[in-house]
């Protein structure tokens, strides 16, 4: 279809993935704005296997983004530890600098508006010095073609639709061969129709390039469609309320949303999510986004 | 070819342009008639026809273009100096908290003083009149530049910085590839506003202390009783200022191609 993957595949073929295991152990995070202690995340423990698509669902403001930011290295945690392949990357006293083995794709996109698409995608390898400018640009061209976006290399992000921008951002992340992809509600700002297509795109990429994915959303349907493993987070302070293994077969297309198993899983988890959403609503949680 | 001609015709003869031209011409006619008939205050104002003949005379004179050059030269000196000093200063203030705290107070104390109030001090302090005028112009543009650069640099989207960090960028990369391009639109806004201030200051400074330039020309015409030439001077200043601003806008558009209108 529009992914247009051919036999000449630049992306790594899905193989037994051994890297990218994330361990979150008893992590708590207390913010201290103006002397008022806010417990954002309360004693969360999560284990993500390499190559697993893990989705966290929860109402806005529950601390999902805080967890993601801690994994990414943007801030530290107050208790507990986060390990990547057994190595501590975030503890109360140490935060590994953000790096390309765990790349973040943001809400509303963070493509650099002043660079062309080509420069955006080639940014990572050039800046890390792992490729010359020419090599990085060639790889960027190939990757864009793989992902069905061959003609936009010289355009600027504000000329593209949101769907295309998201794809470019995923390309920009993938070109660095990260161990882990951290996606913070990447499809939130898209209309429902574009969102569905973008989700399928992400799944196609995932099938091709098994990476550990840590995905945040407030949309339960999205979570069920994408995940291997869903975690429901409570409203603030965020705790892991329950977990669900999603055993829907891959590769998944939109047809799966009407399947019996999907509906069973949805029923199982819906009550839990809805309860938290109602609590958040009652508590008047401010939208953090 | 035909399409271009068609487009050109549409632009020149569009309703808006035609209306504009008609309106200006009508005003000129009214002015001419009023002046000749000594209507109210128009009695002492030179008519457009007189202004035109004065323009003709002054162009033949040749010294006119010296005045243009003199003004432009001062504008360039002061403006460029303001950019060279102001832009790095603004960026340094945005990036380093300590530097910001150090520089901010003296800056805020000096900023409210209008550039023209500096003229007497500048004359005393600088050895030549030229330098004094350039200094006053510099001040006019400088504060605008610093403020705009500061504003632009501090408003950088946090996610851009985080995304860049995620890719393992070094500090120098973050500066040259994220902070600078992100601030560029604000830098050019500062330039455009600064250019307007610069012209105001140059004209006034020349009137007070100069011996050449368009501002001096305008003032000398008044003092010498050559009233049509005053209007020539005024219009010249307007055109000169407009051309400089247009140049800045042009350069700005070229430097920030991602800001094209959709």
Order of helices and strands of chain B: HHHHHHHHHHH
The biggest sheet of chain A amounts to:
6 strands, mixed
Percentage beta strand of chain A: 15-25%
Oligomer type: heterodimer
Uncertain runs of chain A are: 1-10
- Classify the secondary structure makeup of chain A into a structural class: alpha/beta
Mean of residue pLDDT of chain A? 84
**Strand tally of chain A:** 10
Number of helices of chain B: 11
Largest two-chain interface? A-B, 26 and 23 residues
Residue windows where pLDDT falls under 50 for at least 5 positions of chain B:
none
Helix segment count of chain A?
Answer: 7
Which characteristics define this entry?
heterodimer; A: 289 residues; alpha/beta; six-stranded mixed beta sheet; four-stranded antiparallel beta sheet; 7 helices; 10 strands; disordered N terminus; B: 262 residues; mainly alpha; 11 helices; 82% helix; 0% strand
What can you tell me about this protein's structure?
The complex is a heterodimer of chains A (289) and B (262). Chain A has 289 residues and is α/β, with parallel strands linked by helices. Chain A is built from seven helices and ten strands. Chain A has a six-stranded mixed sheet with strand order 6-7-8-3-9-10, sandwiched between helices. In chain A, strands 2-1-4-5 form a four-stranded antiparallel sheet, covered by helices on one side. In chain A, strand 4 and strand 5 form a beta hairpin. In chain A, helix 6 packs antiparallel against helix 7. The radius of gyration of chain A is 19 Å and the shape is globular. Residues 1-10 of chain A have low confidence and may be disordered. Chain B is 82% helix and 0% strand. The model of chain B has no long low-confidence stretch (mean pLDDT 87). Chain B is flat, with a radius of gyration of 23 Å. Chain B contains eleven helices and no strands. Chain B is mostly helical. The interface between A and B is medium-sized, with 26 and 23 residues.
């Amino acid at each position: 279809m529009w992914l247009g993957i051919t036999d000449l595949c630049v992306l790594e073929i899905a193989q037994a993935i051994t890297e990218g295991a994330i361990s979150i152990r008893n992590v708590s995070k207390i913010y201290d704005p103006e002397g008022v202690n806010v417990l954002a995340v309360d004693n969360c423990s999560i284990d993500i296997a390499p190559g697993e698509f893990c989705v966290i669902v929860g109402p806005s403001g529950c601390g999902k983004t805080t967890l993601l930011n801690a994994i990414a290295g943007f801030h530290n945690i107050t208790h507990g530890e986060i390990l990547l392949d057994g190595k501590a990357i975030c503890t109360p006293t140490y935060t590994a600098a953000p790096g390309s083995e765990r790349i973040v794709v943001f809400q509303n996109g963070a493509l650099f508006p002043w660079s062309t698409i080509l420069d955006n995608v080639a940014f990572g390898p050039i800046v890390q010095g792992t490729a010359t400018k020419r090599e990085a640009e060639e790889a960027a061209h190939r990757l864009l073609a793989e992902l069905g976006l061959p003609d936009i290399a010289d355009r600027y992000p504000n000329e593209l639709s949101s769907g295309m921008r998201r794809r470019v951002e995923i390309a920009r992340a993938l070109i660095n061969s990260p161990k882990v992809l951290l996606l913070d509600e990447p499809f939130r700002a898209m209309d429902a129709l574009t969102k569905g297509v973008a989700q399928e795109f992400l799944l196609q990429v995932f099938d091709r390039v098994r990476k550990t994915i840590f995905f945040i959303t407030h949309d339960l349907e999205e979570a069920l469609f994408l995940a291997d493993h869903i975690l429901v987070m409570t409203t603030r302070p965020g705790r892991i309320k329950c977990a669900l293994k999603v055993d829907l077969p891959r590769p998944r297309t939109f047809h799966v949303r009407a399947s019996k198993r999907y509906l069973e899983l949805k029923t199982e988890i819906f009550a839990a999510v809805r309860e938290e959403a109602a609590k958040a609503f009652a508590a008047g949680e401010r939208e953090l986004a | 070819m035909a399409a271009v001609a068609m487009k050109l015709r549409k632009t020149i003869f569009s309703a808006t342009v035609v209306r504009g031209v008609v309106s200006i011409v009508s005003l000129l006619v009214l002015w001419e008639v009023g002046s000749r008939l000594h209507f109210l205050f128009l009695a002492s104002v030179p008519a457009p026809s007189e202004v035109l003949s004065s323009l003709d005379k002054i162009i033949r004179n040749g010294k006119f273009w010296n005045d243009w050059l003199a003004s432009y030269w001062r504008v360039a000196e002061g403006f460029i100096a303001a950019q060279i000093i102001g832009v790095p200063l603004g960026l340094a203030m945005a990036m380093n908290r300590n530097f910001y705290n150090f520089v901010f107070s003296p800056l805020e104390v000096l900023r409210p003083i209008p550039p023209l109030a500096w003229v007497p001090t500048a004359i005393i302090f600088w050895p030549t009149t030229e330098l004094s005028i350039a200094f006053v112009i510099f001040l006019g543009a400088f504060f605008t530049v610093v403020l705009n650069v500061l504003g632009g640099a501090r408003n950088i989207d946090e996610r851009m910085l985080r995304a860049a960090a995620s890719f393992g960028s070094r500090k120098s990369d973050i500066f040259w590839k994220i902070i600078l391009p992100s601030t560029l639109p604000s830098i050019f806004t500062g330039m455009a506003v600064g250019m307007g201030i610069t012209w105001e200051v140059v004209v006034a400074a020349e009137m007070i202390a100069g011996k050449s330039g368009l501002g001096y020309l305008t003032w000398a015409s008044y003092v010498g009783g050559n009233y049509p030439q005053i209007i020539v001077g005024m219009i010249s200043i307007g055109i000169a200022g407009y051309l400089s601003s247009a140049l800045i806008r042009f350069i700005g558009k070229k430097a920030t191609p991602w800001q094209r209108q959709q």
